[in-house]
Specification:
Order of helices and strands: HHHHHHHHEEHHHHHHHHHHHHH
Number of domains: 1
Protein name: Tripartite tricarboxylate transporter TctA
Strand order of the largest sheet: 1-2
InterPro entries: DUF112_TM
Shape: globular
Helix content: over 70%
Domain DUF112: 20-443
Number of helices: 21
Transmembrane segments: 20-39, 45-71, 111-134, 140-160, 172-188, 208-225, 262-285, 323-347, 359-379, 399-422, 434-452, 472-493
Organism: Thioclava dalianensis
Strand content: under 5%
Length: 512
């Protein structure tokens, strides 16, 4: 009952005109950013962070806007996947396999509506999972001491990006780079400047919002400048056809949606797995379960559209669980949201539910509101979102650059921060050329200082005894999970990646 009464309080916070309008704006912009190939939820949220801060929004309104963008982008990724066979983001990649064949059969409208419905089912039940699971995780997290927190942060680093990145060595390099960036500034214990090279502006360390906008948003602009893709994503007119799927199709796909929601939510809760893995597991499981009899997957089977969409949207909700309850992001986009919380002087973790219940429950209530908005928006407005695909990048990218520069300058008022942001943009562009994942860098920049202070505190409390890091059953459990999470992708990751690349090849052959 306490949970439901807290949720009712959250709806009282979320149901104000300002928050409803912000949720509506976030859903609309997020769907557009998800639909545009290459942007995706991480970039979408990163681009709009400066806008949230420039408008002077408080903690709850800022999070409502940005999480609505997050959910909207997860919905929007399916649009270009189905219509153009170009995934809007990586989680939407699996939707191409059956979504585009449905479009080629003249069932594009039905595929879009069905995928919107599956996205709603995944997000809706994942939000309920967040409501009931996060407070239980908080109870466990209250048992944490400095050694356990250090092990938890190590778990996040060892699992994040394992399956999705090209290899573990690149993920480890990115994490080390992020931790190195976190060391810049004045040491909080000794007061000695570190890696500042005499630059006074670096005494406070690197602002992680500057790093995030540079790495995600500006690097996208540099990639565009390199390739100069001035034409629109499509010049051909896409026939939408009938919008509403027949009731028989909904009945056929309902069990698929429910199964995929459970699998996707579990993948989202695991630190580092995220929506890409949720989408892949859901599609693969459904194909093995029902396709041996029908042999229709990959040829326009509606269940092949419903499974990845329910899975990746459920994973998006699941990734918020460890972020809110433990302060450890479950995906790249939640790492960006974690940075927003920290910049608002709100520390995610077990005390968040007691110290800032208005923020947590207002956010969760807003997720329900955003879900219904997205369902209502994504079916009748499909034609509008389809036209967005025709916007040439030469128009879109200058807008992204302008929002980034104006927003960051509006937050800090420092031209030095603009130079740092450009530096991070160049670094992000170079790292993306070498297929180095950016999320571990962000995670290192965000959690590096907390990781260091917990390590120092644990060692100091036990008079310099390093074995204190494995001195409790909880710490040992976290280390075991971390090691397994690091080793498993080495064993199974290659198989998963080869299957995912095979899917990409199949998409390419269909497109050709």
């Amino acid at each position: 009952m306490d949970t439901l009464s807290s949720l009712a309080d959250g709806f009282a916070i979320a149901l104000t005109w300002q928050n409803i309008l912000l949720a509506l704006l976030g859903c609309f912009l997020g769907t557009i950013m998800g639909a545009l190939p290459g942007l995706g939820p991480s970039n979408g949220v990163a681009i709009l962070i400066p806008l949230a801060f420039t408008l002077g929004l408080g903690a709850t309104p800022s999070l409502i806007l940005l999480t609505s963008v997050y959910y909207g982008a997860m919905y929007g990724g399916r649009i270009s996947s189905i219509l153009l066979n170009i995934p809007g983001d990586e989680p939407a990649m699996m939707t191409c396999l059956d979504g585009h064949p449905m479009a080629l059969k003249g069932m594009a409208g039905q595929a879009l509506s069905l995928s919107g419905l599956a996205s709603f089912v995944g997000s809706f039940f994942a939000t309920w999972g967040l409501i009931f699971l996060a407070p239980q995780l908080v109870k466990i997290a209250l048992l944490f001491g400095p050694a356990e927190y250090f092990a938890l942060f190590a778990l996040a680093f060892m699992t994040l990006g394992g399956v999705s990145s090209t290899n573990q060595a690149k993920s480890a390099f990115a994490a080390a780079l992020g931790l190195g960036l976190a060391m810049i500034g004045v040491d909080t214990q000794t007061g000695v400047p570190r890696f500042t090279f005499g630059e006074v502006h670096l005494y406070d360390g690197i602002d992680f919002l500057v790093a995030i906008v540079g790495l995600f948003a500006l690097s996208e602009v540099f990639i565009f400048l390199e390739h100069r893709h001035g034409s629109a994503s499509t010049n051909r007119k896409v026939e939408i056809g009938r919008l509403s799927p027949p009731m028989s199709m909904i009945k056929q796909t309902t069990p698929t949606m429910l199964r995929s929601t459970v699998l996707g939510f579990i993948a989202g809760v695991l630190p580092g797995a995220g929506a890409s893995l949720g989408s892949f597991i859901s599609y693969s499981f459904e194909k093995r379960l029902v396709d041996p009899q029908s042999k229709t997957f990959g040829k326009g089977d509606p269940r092949g559209v419903a499974a990845p969409e329910a899975g990746n949207n459920a994973a998006a909700g699941g990734a918020l669980v460890p972020m809110l309850a433990l302060g450890v992001p479950g995906s790249g986009t939640t790492a960006v949201l974690l940075a927003v919380l920290l910049s608002l002087n709100i520390t995610p973790g077990p005390l968040l539910f007691t110290q800032n219940p208005d923020v947590v429950w207002g956010l969760i209530a807003a997720l329900f509101i955003a879900n219904f908005m997205l369902l209502a928006m994504n079916i009748p407005m499909v034609g509008l979102f389809t036209r967005v695909l025709m916007v040439p990048p030469r128009i879109l990218m200058p807008i992204v650059a302008m929002v980034s520069f104006v927003g960051i300058y509006g937050i800090s008022g420092s031209s030095f921060d603009l130079l740092v942001m450009v530096g991070f943009g160049v670094m992000g562009w170079i790292l993306r050329k070498f297929d180095v994942p950016l999320v571990p860098i962000i995670l290192g920049t965000l959690l590096g200082n907390a990781m260091e202070s917990n390590l120092r505190r644990a060692i100091t409390i036990d008079n310099g005894n390093w074995f204190t890091l494995i001195d409790s059953p909880l710490a040992i459990t976290l280390w075991v999970i971390a090691i397994i999470g690091f080793i498993l992708p080495l064993i199974f990751g290659r198989k998963v990646k080869s299957q995912m690349s095979q899917r990409r090849d199949e998409e390419g052959s269909i497109k050709d």
